């Protein structure tokens, strides 16, 4: 009975539980948030390369910056060259496949309360949009249907209204984490209708756009036995129009280098939090274990071994560690996962948040790590006090 | 007394936060044309003020039944906080609009926090009342 009382007294009380849990909550919150942000930005940038889906993109001379901004920053822009360039590119030696697109900046269309990029493409030659379709509503896309980016919402009747005309949504694309999520894709068959509707609705359409026979970009994939440089040299000889080239790899690399500074901040925050919380935990542990000297001495006197005493304190540490790290991770999830798009916008970077399975894995990892840190910093204080000679400990308490 | 002061302050702070989310922290979209998110923002400010009033009322009542009643009404309001942008008035249709990437998650998170605080407090007050009635019996 006496043994039980001493044991109870040696256990930490509510305030002490709070003192031990708080730093673990903070630690796991920072670790969770920084890990999720770090991974989501990395995934977003990796995805950008895949999303561009071609070896390089040909755009009109002087529009390289605008085109990059459309892909990376979500700005809206229009630039055109003659459609004849498409055939010249297509018939160049070493070119495996090509796909042309036409960009039309939309003034706030009926579907959307903001500007959207309306993109026209050719489904017969397309190799960019098809692979990203996540929900297919109808098999074929015709002039009366559209494919929408993941950020564009359908009406309840499965349609979308643009410049006063309703279009059936044939498919919706998966989230890419880039500005392409808020684009609408039509086939070239709808171009004349859209332009006349836009004029009728008072949208500004340039003379160039009215002329027709224009395209904005050509996506190119090279044959396996040709390098990009070889194909570009062939294009120089074969194409009689002025153009700029956007290299997909260069674009991803540019993004990845921008990530460097963000990574530094995120890593610095998590390392600082880990150090700060470890020091605080060490201090709290030392104070709490020190306040239990009498109980420890009594337990030694009634026959508990040093190992058993250390076990009692480590069990408390394990309990507070697990509870604290799960709480911290859940708070971290509450503040980072719903704000994924906001964080991506803030950094102006592609951002793809984790799925539920990944969140569970991250929580488990952080629980292991934070509990491990908690136990590691408590080992020394627990060991020092448990090795105290019972007589000295009790006499000091008495004094 | 501890519960009355701490929960009253918590409700007032949460109410103030709720009014600030659609106006200052994650403001709804600014446009000449009043969009759905504008009305959602207005409604949220109203709900925030209501929580502030209930928070102030909370400190005035000694009876744990009355305080449990206030907590239940705050719990109901927390559901409305999430339902206004999700169902009742809605938000802009494009998912990359400010109201969707900032205001919506902000409101959902604060509604979860308000719901958790009020529910836990409600359960605490009910258990407290049970303990007291057991003691007197």
What does this structure look like?
The complex is a heterodimer of chains A (399) and B (137). Chain A has 399 residues and is an alpha+beta fold. Chain A folds into 2 domains: 2-47 and 254-398, no CATH class; 62-241, no CATH class. Helix content of chain A is 56%, strand content 16%. Chain A has helices at 2-10, 14-52, 64-72, 84-90, 191-200, 207-211, 228-238, 248-291, 293-301, 306-336, 340-347, 356-386, 390-398; strands spanning 56-60, 81-82, 95-105, 117-121, 133-136, 145-148, 159-162, 165-173, 183-187, 214-215, 217-222, 243-247. In chain A, strands 1, 3, 4, 5, 6, 7, 8, 9, 11 and 12 form a 10-stranded mixed β-sheet that branches. In chain A, helix 2 packs antiparallel against helix 8 (248-291) and helix 9 crosses helix 13 (390-398). Chain B is an all-alpha fold and 137 residues long. Chain B has one domain (2-136). Helices cover 82% and strands 0% of the residues of chain B. In chain B, helix 1 (2-25) runs antiparallel to helix 2. Chain B is elongated. Chain A binds chain B through residues 74, 111-114, 116, 150-153, 181-182, 334-335, 338-339, 341-342, 345, and chain B through 26, 29, 31, 33, 35, 92-97, 100-102, 104-106, 108-109, 112.
